[in-house]
Amino acid sequence: MTIGVVTFPGSLDDGDAARAVRVAGGDAVRLWHGDADLRGVDAVVLPGGFSYGDYLRCGAIARFAPIMEPLIRAAHGGMPVLGICNGFQVLCEAHLLPGALVRNDHRKFVCRDQRLRIENASTAWTSSYQKDQEIVIPLKNGEGGYVADEATLDRLETDGRVVARYLDVNPNGSYRDIAGVTNERGNVVGLMPHPEHAVEELTGPGTDGLGFFASVLESLVAA
Amino acid sequence: MTVDTVETATKTPEQSQPWAELGLKADEYERIRDILGRRPTSSELAMYSVMWSEHCSYKSSKVHLRRFGELQQETPVGKLLAGIGENAGVIDVGHGYAVTFKAESHNHPSYVEPYQGAATGVGGIVRDILAMGARPIGVMDSLRFGPLDAPDTARVLPGVVAGVGGYGNCLGLPNIGGEVVFDSTYSGNPLVNALCVGVMRHEDLHLAKASGAGNKVILYGARTGGDGIGGVSVLASETFESSGPAKRPSVQVGDPFMEKLLIECTLELFAAGVVAGIQDLGGAGLSCATSELASAGDGGMHVELDRVPLRDSTLAPEEILMSESQERMMAVVEPADVERFMEICAKWDVQADVIGEVNESGRLTIEWRGETVVDVPPRTVAHEGPVYQRPYERPGWLDELQAAASSSLPRPSSGDELRSTLLRMVASPNLCSRAWVTDQYDRYVLGNTVLAQPEDAGVLRLDDDSGLGIALSVDANGRYAKLDPYAGAQLALAEAYRNVAVTGAKPVAVTDCLNFGSPEDPGVMWQFAEAVRGLADGCQKLGTPVTGGNVSLYNQTGDTAILPTPVVGVLGVLDDVARRIPSGFRTPGHIIYLLGDTADEFGGSEWAHVVHSHLGGLPPAVDLDAERELAEILHSASRDGLVSAAHDVSDGGVAQALVESVLRHGVGARVWVPDGLDPFVFLFSESTARAVVAVPHPEEVRFTGMCEARRFPHTRIGVIDDEGTLEVQGQFSIGFDELRRAHEQTLPSALGE
């Protein structure tokens, strides 16, 4: 199973995402923002970072990168796509996910080991978790506050599309403590915290993040 | 706009020139005229003024720094592949890997404009590491501010921290440690020292020189603008006067996104083998890059300044030469490789322009609109600047200061008094939790961070297969150095060495960032000379060469100099990072040992500072043999799995070490005062060459046997439990809620959540 990891200018966690794919047992394929070609991959990760310097608005320019055209098409066709942090911002800008990410309410960058509750364990990226399972993975962002209008938030709740919620503290002012959401079909997931930084005991707060990558590999095998 | 060409300079020898405003002294200006045999053009004057500034030329410090060059150019694990004099020293760490690390000050810009000053400090040191051919893999920051409750600290500190974080986070470099220290002498002159570490394969080493006539000189990266003009001469090499004009235009403005592209682009250029020589553009901008490259090469260089891409088309040639616009690099490229070079730059959207050519003229010539504006021997600009034998003298006030010993200060004696002293100490600005600062830094990016703050040292994995890794720590204690600069520098070295050693790493090499007051003050110059002598002697004894460093002088406000602050960085090597020792207690039942001897030493201590606002006497005794022995014990213990935690004992003594170790994972500890030791001395003395370790019960016999065989003092002082308290038997007990509140609330309450 091959999982593509896109590198935009300013992507930072692309190497980590590729490593996480390998640790989970998949093959990572590096994709370049300027190529309108997914190189036959089975799923795609949009990694964290500051694509195009986060100029204008986080993710606003990346959304128009040549790679996004086939990616958006594939996502509509059901291909699993995970956007982490900046990747989540890109997915919102590309309207593959509802809502937007805004500057943290306390106006500072924050890096911490964050406890989350997995609320939807049936997406392509969370099926290896149990519903309501609590995990700890790193969170690091300056603009990670998830916002959407009330109607959208209500719909997300009703449809079970809130993938993960912050526990203990809300680190960035996200509405309803939302840390991640999915699309209606459950193949596209956006997540503000960083599962790719929690795949080895040696370098992370634990290995709780591995499940995201294991999930998609399992779902691809099953498909 | 009339341009001052070499031709007009020759014809108008008497024209007055603004050499004083550019920071040159009268004799220096005369010397330039002697070298050239005429008056300099305004462009030449600009180049000499920035390159002969204290910051670039090390003219006051050079005669002392020679001591570092006399140290053995070998580390305990291998040769130095590049030493002092290059952008950064390069150390062989085995398995074909080499590591380069260096610290640099950005003190004055960070006072004027905290965010940009600190951000561009990080950017500059990262480019230094990149220019050696290495991939930058981590940063650290050593920060000093005025008192935490001073109004200006609330302006400077948040801006500096946001700048360090904003730039480093956007570059994708983990911040793995550093220092935050408060003292009133840093009020008008904060210290911002940024360190970067990089890794490369041996064969990837690149040096800054322009060789090979006909090779092209390429400037790539950001366009050149009017920012940072005279940064090194006007800002970094002068004392601040409160009444002077605003210096904000001398501060550079950073763009970390551009720097990230520059890093990836440069590494791809190296990999493609199209770089014959390279230099980063930092202080003194193009003046520095062109003259240093030409001077270190074997011939001359011709530059067409019109080809430099500008952000502001109205810039004059001297401004272009002095601009410190960030995110620029200069490469020397063989003609056949230019096309490939340009392709790689285009891939990364990095602008690149051929601006000149290497030749055999022996001169650096620069042309502007068809006329020659610079024609100089490059060595006179870059490497043969003025050298001063500044007068230095032991200051008269030192005897009195050293005589004012701390022994007469009232000490706590009852259990209750010790308890409240401990709570007051752990909440004090220099000892409280740094989370408010470090939570703004990304420590996870790149996926190789094995240990980061609040650990004693940062540990990074270099190689996934073998587990080869490095440990890094930066330390200084300005109060110790004020009491005795020779010992103070050695104490900084000893602490950084020990911080690396407690992770189980073998300490191998040293870098420094020497922050002092005005070299024109003989007392300050004496402090500097003594600190250099102390550091060099210490490195000799520990077998760790100084691989590079940075000097920052003129750190004073009016006549008041900062505490002499020699910041020392030590690099260690771990054969397998999986064997690293963390600092936090984790497992109930493990036995707590104190390694090393505890004496009654409170001169310059945190206790004397916090409780009595006292600074006097002598700092704790230095014992580098004991430090070395301690490091070997910890290295062996890590290799054989004999300890589960190890924490350095330094500022705040054993009490501080215990508090940090128990709070890390929220377990408890029951501790007893060793026979024959006064409880206060046991808890708060700052005797050196000590560490607190946790030993699993089954390993206790082996562990103590090893210490005995090495005749190293080791005292059983307690046991880890799960009671959620820190208990000192017969004295006091403190629950974690109270302890945590004391330790963690100080910075958030002072600076806002």
Automatic annotation (TrEMBL), chain A:
<dbReference type="GO" id="GO:0005737">
    <property type="term" value="C:cytoplasm"/>
</dbReference>
<dbReference type="InterPro" id="IPR010075">
    <property type="entry name" value="PRibForGlyAmidine_synth_PurQ"/>
</dbReference>
<keyword id="KW-0067">ATP-binding</keyword>
<comment type="pathway">
    <text>Purine metabolism; IMP biosynthesis via de novo pathway; 5-amino-1-(5-phospho-D-ribosyl)imidazole from N(2)-formyl-N(1)-(5-phospho-D-ribosyl)glycinamide: step 1/2.</text>
</comment>
<dbReference type="GO" id="GO:0006189">
    <property type="term" value="P:'de novo' IMP biosynthetic process"/>
</dbReference>
<comment type="function">
    <text>Part of the phosphoribosylformylglycinamidine synthase complex involved in the purines biosynthetic pathway. Catalyzes the ATP-dependent conversion of formylglycinamide ribonucleotide (FGAR) and glutamine to yield formylglycinamidine ribonucleotide (FGAM) and glutamate. The FGAM synthase complex is composed of three subunits. PurQ produces an ammonia molecule by converting glutamine to glutamate. PurL transfers the ammonia molecule to FGAR to form FGAM in an ATP-dependent manner.</text>
</comment>
<feature type="active site">
    <location>
        <position position="194"/>
    </location>
</feature>
<dbReference type="GO" id="GO:0004642">
    <property type="term" value="F:phosphoribosylformylglycinamidine synthase activity"/>
</dbReference>
<dbReference type="GO" id="GO:0005524">
    <property type="term" value="F:ATP binding"/>
</dbReference>
<protein>
    <recommendedName>
        <fullName>Phosphoribosylformylglycinamidine synthase subunit PurQ</fullName>
        <ecNumber>6.3.5.3</ecNumber>
        <ecNumber>3.5.1.2</ecNumber>
    </recommendedName>
</protein>
<keyword id="KW-0436">Ligase</keyword>
<keyword id="KW-0658">Purine biosynthesis</keyword>
<keyword id="KW-0547">Nucleotide-binding</keyword>
<dbReference type="GO" id="GO:0004359">
    <property type="term" value="F:glutaminase activity"/>
</dbReference>
<keyword id="KW-0315">Glutamine amidotransferase</keyword>
<comment type="subunit">
    <text>Part of the FGAM synthase complex composed of 1 PurL, 1 PurQ and 2 PurS subunits.</text>
</comment>
<feature type="active site">
    <location>
        <position position="196"/>
    </location>
</feature>
<dbReference type="Pfam" id="PF13507">
    <property type="entry name" value="GATase_5"/>
</dbReference>
<keyword id="KW-0963">Cytoplasm</keyword>
<dbReference type="InterPro" id="IPR029062">
    <property type="entry name" value="Class_I_gatase-like"/>
</dbReference>
<feature type="active site" description="Nucleophile">
    <location>
        <position position="85"/>
    </location>
</feature>
<keyword id="KW-0378">Hydrolase</keyword>
TrEMBL record, chain B:
<feature type="domain" description="PurM-like C-terminal">
    <location>
        <begin position="588"/>
        <end position="729"/>
    </location>
</feature>
<dbReference type="Pfam" id="PF00586">
    <property type="entry name" value="AIRS"/>
</dbReference>
<feature type="binding site">
    <location>
        <position position="550"/>
    </location>
    <ligand>
        <name>Mg(2+) 1</name>
    </ligand>
</feature>
<feature type="binding site">
    <location>
        <position position="552"/>
    </location>
    <ligand>
        <name>substrate</name>
    </ligand>
</feature>
<feature type="binding site">
    <location>
        <position position="104"/>
    </location>
    <ligand>
        <name>Mg(2+) 1</name>
    </ligand>
</feature>
<comment type="subunit">
    <text>Monomer. Part of the FGAM synthase complex composed of 1 PurL, 1 PurQ and 2 PurS subunits.</text>
</comment>
<feature type="domain" description="Phosphoribosylformylglycinamidine synthase linker">
    <location>
        <begin position="20"/>
        <end position="59"/>
    </location>
</feature>
<keyword id="KW-0963">Cytoplasm</keyword>
<dbReference type="GO" id="GO:0005737">
    <property type="term" value="C:cytoplasm"/>
</dbReference>
<dbReference type="Pfam" id="PF02769">
    <property type="entry name" value="AIRS_C"/>
</dbReference>
<keyword id="KW-0547">Nucleotide-binding</keyword>
<dbReference type="Pfam" id="PF18072">
    <property type="entry name" value="FGAR-AT_linker"/>
</dbReference>
<comment type="similarity">
    <text>Belongs to the FGAMS family.</text>
</comment>
<dbReference type="InterPro" id="IPR010074">
    <property type="entry name" value="PRibForGlyAmidine_synth_PurL"/>
</dbReference>
<dbReference type="InterPro" id="IPR041609">
    <property type="entry name" value="PurL_linker"/>
</dbReference>
<dbReference type="GO" id="GO:0000287">
    <property type="term" value="F:magnesium ion binding"/>
</dbReference>
<feature type="active site">
    <location>
        <position position="55"/>
    </location>
</feature>
<feature type="binding site">
    <location>
        <position position="512"/>
    </location>
    <ligand>
        <name>ATP</name>
    </ligand>
</feature>
<keyword id="KW-0479">Metal-binding</keyword>
<dbReference type="InterPro" id="IPR016188">
    <property type="entry name" value="PurM-like_N"/>
</dbReference>
<dbReference type="GO" id="GO:0005524">
    <property type="term" value="F:ATP binding"/>
</dbReference>
<feature type="binding site">
    <location>
        <position position="128"/>
    </location>
    <ligand>
        <name>Mg(2+) 2</name>
    </ligand>
</feature>
